[in-house]
Amino acid sequence: MRTSIATVCLSGGLTEKLHACAAAGFDGVEIMDADLVAADESPEEIRALCARLGLGIEMFQPFRDVEGVTDEVFADTLRRASAKFATMARLGADLVLVCSNVATATIDDDELAARQLGALADLAAEKGIRIAYEAMAWGTYVNDYRHSWRIVEKADRPNLGICLDSFHILSRGDDPTGIEQIDGDKIFFLQLADAPVLDMDLLSWSRHHRLFPGEGGFDLPGFLAHVLAAGYGGPLSLEVFNDTFRQTDPVRTAEHALRSLLWLADRTAHAHGEGDGDAGVARPPRAVDFVEIAGADLAVADEMLAQLGFRFRGRHRSKPVRLWSYGDARIVLDEQARDERPALTGIGFVVDDADAAATRAARLGARRIFRRTYAGEQDLPAVSAPDGTGVYWSAAPEDRSWVAEFEGGVGGESTDGVIDHVNLGYHWSEFDEAVLFAASALALTTESSAEVPGPRGLVRSQVMRTRDGVVRIPINLAPPTAPLPSRHIAIRCDDVSAVARRARAAGLEFLRIPANYYDDLAARFGLDDAALDELRNLGLLYDRDGSGEFVHFYTPTIGGVFLEFVERRGGYEGYGALNAPIRLAAQRNEEVRRGVAGSPA
Amino acid sequence: MRTSIATVCLSGGLTEKLHACAAAGFDGVEIMDADLVAADESPEEIRALCARLGLGIEMFQPFRDVEGVTDEVFADTLRRASAKFATMARLGADLVLVCSNVATATIDDDELAARQLGALADLAAEKGIRIAYEAMAWGTYVNDYRHSWRIVEKADRPNLGICLDSFHILSRGDDPTGIEQIDGDKIFFLQLADAPVLDMDLLSWSRHHRLFPGEGGFDLPGFLAHVLAAGYGGPLSLEVFNDTFRQTDPVRTAEHALRSLLWLADRTAHAHGEGDGDAGVARPPRAVDFVEIAGADLAVADEMLAQLGFRFRGRHRSKPVRLWSYGDARIVLDEQARDERPALTGIGFVVDDADAAATRAARLGARRIFRRTYAGEQDLPAVSAPDGTGVYWSAAPEDRSWVAEFEGGVGGESTDGVIDHVNLGYHWSEFDEAVLFAASALALTTESSAEVPGPRGLVRSQVMRTRDGVVRIPINLAPPTAPLPSRHIAIRCDDVSAVARRARAAGLEFLRIPANYYDDLAARFGLDDAALDELRNLGLLYDRDGSGEFVHFYTPTIGGVFLEFVERRGGYEGYGALNAPIRLAAQRNEEVRRGVAGSPA
């Protein structure tokens, strides 16, 4: 299917937007009149640019508030329309959007609306223009797609059809199954947008908070399936009004946007058994294979991993890379990096078909990474996530030959560890993109989200995971004024107290937890003195819910990365959200002590 | 009255917050338990710090969800309370907030609620602690202040009273006049917050969007008057949950917060005829006296002003400062600045009593500016706005002796000009502060606000003005990723076409308006060809509403400032909002042409 995007989704001037859409690989665009009006280029120049870039002008959106008005107002509307149809002829656009009247409508009369839309369609027909009539969710009288369709049927003009917009239908909670009753040839256009589930007025929600498919709470695959079942064959066009995307780099946003459409098409096809094999349909990973920390000098990390009880598995036979493991949790220390500051730079996943996973991610717009490999080394298929984090795939554990490339390590009696979750922090402008990447390229699904008050502002956190919980990636969003949040690797073990005791005996200082925290624990949970003393003495944190308990501790931060050890008791499925503000405050206190924290502004 | 602020309003750790509150001049604080729990300092250390800083601990907020529960749940609540009362004893706090149950309430029974609150009060009484019970707007059963008051009356304990919070009352649209029926001695605490008028769920509105008094849409002076009429004599305490204030510099935010309380106290007193003379009550300015542009070399500005028909009024007799005027619009060019980039750095206002205005602004926390003056020069009382912009006051026009300090200018036949408005751009984190400064120190009132889509994101604009419209200051908010928006001075004249023709003849190039704009004007307003040709040929912009017409043009930008000439026909009161996106796009096109615009990211 053709892919398309409304120019209003992107920042910049119209020509910048068009270049960005073409660079990302869109087939066409929906041009907002406001973008054309503000452009230095004439309609003819824009038409020529689109032709050169291989972009179809799928639709033009030049005016609103047509139907349900007095004859006098409608006469002026026809005059306006006539002028805009002339612009469309210059632009080479032949489909125009007409939204249901939200402002000037004074008459609630379907006969009148059909008559006026019919008259407009007749005027358009003289110019070879088709009209797509759309029910806006806050239309004065027409705000339901079934209603707009009834009016279009009543008007009965060959060049008058309807436009469907997922936001206007799903935001109202309308049932989209009725779409299948509409003649697919009369669905002239399809606009797609996701949105977070919010309880606010429709107009503000629509104008500021729309998201690309896969990033919000709407069932876009289900919606699209109904539209396709109706027989729609036109483009899938994104129309996303979002305060963030309006100000971020248009090339990057356009790539991000296209990824959302490809994800949506795959998901929809998959749900209907039409996937094109493994390459087309995302399969969730079976495990985290390893996490990579890179930096110019990682001796401090070596020491910390040893203190925590990690086993040294050796040095890579041809690169300055070392492997440590704690049971099934593997951490790769990579000193090939030029950056002085250690950082969490890569994650490996175990999947059934590594090449298929990488191919699929590349098809979603991710850049392939090719690393220098030598004879006999396993070449893990890999891509770069939008923020630059490396993503590697390897086949099922029995094939994990890359581990054998590390030499000189200690023997392999295993402990009980496994990677519980990997927490990735992002700048605020990269958050939605990161969520979509995890949903599309990594085939993870959206779990809970939380807001954590920290000393530098609210931190938003969105957990992405496999349904079985084996892979969990909480994605954190830093407030605009804060630096990039540290990332961390959480290791799950059977007895976190034992790990803590051993690590402390080996000389590791944990993140310092304030004494007041333990007083609060006592008040909150009524723990007995012995349990409380153990937590306090070991510097452990604690949480409990109806299903079980969670005990954990954090290491100090090395550069931009730290470790957490967690123990889950019973059916506890969370991440100690109540303790996250304590952790953020303690990390900032630590920075203040070390003199590296600036004023929050 | 005592001033107080909840620690949750500010960023940073608890000790940083306390220092910021003291530096701003607050009398006390309301400590959120979460801030204490995350602090490295013990309750005793926090108590000592508050004592040293001269801050009273007005209230402590350690737990929620008390009343309306089963006996079993309530027994655990008493256990929790007991632990927190012990913390309060260490902290030296004797008032505790109890919010109406939003979570664990299962029983809708006022008798039970009164019995449980009474039992809690009896436990508190043993420790010398008083309880303030507050109806949360989204309380499960108790969400109206009249209801919480009925329960408190029913419980009838000397140490149990109510807490009123303006947000929880005004957000629900509840009538606050009933507050006067409450025994003032039983109002144990008052929390104040403003908020923008939004149509969204109460919890999200409350947690993210509260504002300091004077910045939102609530009638806080009216609300406070009812509370004072009831006989309340406790502190005025701010409790503002706001995503921006959580991440901005706590010292600056605390100053900003205190300014809002002082504004509120003045407004409330004024409304009741209790102002302490001119120093206490803000009087709106009578006119804009001048606008100052500063820069290291302003020769380009001289040339532009001359081309526009400004008259050169001379050089200052002792400083590198020049004065230009266009009728009653005066622009001061100040080359004392070290900054190479010309900027709008000051505004002068005409008021009845300049010293009183400056004294009042200083009392609101603004810093006085003292400039080097010589014998015989008029010393204009002045302060620095929070962002550094200079604000000067001079007495009524007949006393405007500072103009006579400029020598060597041309004669004074006057033209028709006057300053229509001065548009000030701010970084996103300074917007609310700027609005409050205009409301409090400048005594302007809030008019319309608008959102303008620009190529770098949405620009929010809030007009601040005198009721008579003689002084109008639109305040613009840049999106986070965008640079500080340019500021501009708009001159109103009787015949903008004549000004434009003369300026063009003198060689001035205006901001280039795209040809597509005029095609759109034709479609939008149905202007005749002659009118359209005149607009197009002169590069003028046009708007029309039911009351009149607006014709205007923009000059190119010099550094961070440009000029606008406007003509208002009939009763048009707006600012050409539909043209603002054209202006933003044209300015960006200009930057791209000049090679100074980067990618929007």
TrEMBL record, chains A, B:
Annotated EC: 4.2.1.118
Recorded metabolic or biological pathway in which this protein acts: Aromatic compound metabolism; 3,4-dihydroxybenzoate biosynthesis
Annotated binding of Mg(2+), by residue: 421, 488, 564
A GO term, aspect molecular function: isomerase activity
Enzyme class: lyase
Cofactor(s), by name: a divalent metal cation
Stated name of the protein: 3-dehydroshikimate dehydratase
Native source organism of the sequence: Protaetiibacter mangrovi
